[in-house]
Design a protein that fits this description.
alpha+beta, 6 helices, 10 strands, globular
């Protein structure tokens, strides 16, 4: 990162919390549920726009799950998905395998996402445990975060978005060229 930037622990800059899982033995926690409930495996793309599962109002009351507001950056904390992140684009809850970094005025959620994507391997290396290594919310809170002006955050995000758009275009072009070459080769063999 850039020399001269100041860093503070995530826990000193943001509010964070992890979700919870209502008891599965009480069907009322899930039946006719309308509250989106995110699992760590769903934290796998930049923008999280839907949930596969839902819990009921009773499930929300009977667990440590809480609502995350729009633009919360979610960090997967367990197993193979540990350290993956995404930006929540609707209000939702999650299980305990997800840590939410709540939005804060003056800090771009896309910048937080970009930073956690940048440190993903470092954070994943912090996972501990046997069959399903995990990162704790306490470890997420201790991550040092660059505290820079909002305008600089937006500039960094714009540069990254442009770079990734260029990479996506190059990949699409390579696929088209490869497909075109394969079609040409097969066409020649048939004649």
């Amino acid at each position: 990162m850039k020399e001269g930037w100041t860093y503070k622990k995530i826990g000193d800059v943001f509010k964070t919390y992890a979700g919870g899982t209502p008891s599965k033995s009480n069907k009322a926690n899930y039946e006719n549920g309308s509250i989106p409930w995110i699992r760590s495996g769903e934290v796998c793309k930049k923008y999280i726009t839907e949930s596969e599962l839902f819990i009921s109002e009773e499930g929300l009351k009977n667990s440590s799950a809480k609502y995350y507001p729009i633009n919360t950056v979610l960090i997967a904390m367990y197993g193979a998905t540990a350290a993956q992140c995404g930006i929540l684009k609707f209000e939702a809850t999650s299980n305990q395998a997800v840590c939410g970094i709540l939005p804060r005025e003056g800090i771009s959620p896309e910048f937080v996402y970009a930073y956690f994507t940048y440190i993903k391997e470092y954070l994943a290396a912090q996972a501990q445990g046997g069959a399903q290594p995990n990162i704790s919310q306490e470890k997420v809170k201790k991550v040092l975060f660059p505290c820079i002006p909002h305008s600089e955050q937006l500039s960094i995000v714009a540069h990254l978005d442009a770079a990734f758009a260029h990479i996506d275009a190059l990949k699409a072009n390579a696929v088209r060229e490869t497909t075109g070459c394969m079609v040409a080769c097969f066409t020649r063999e048939e004649t």
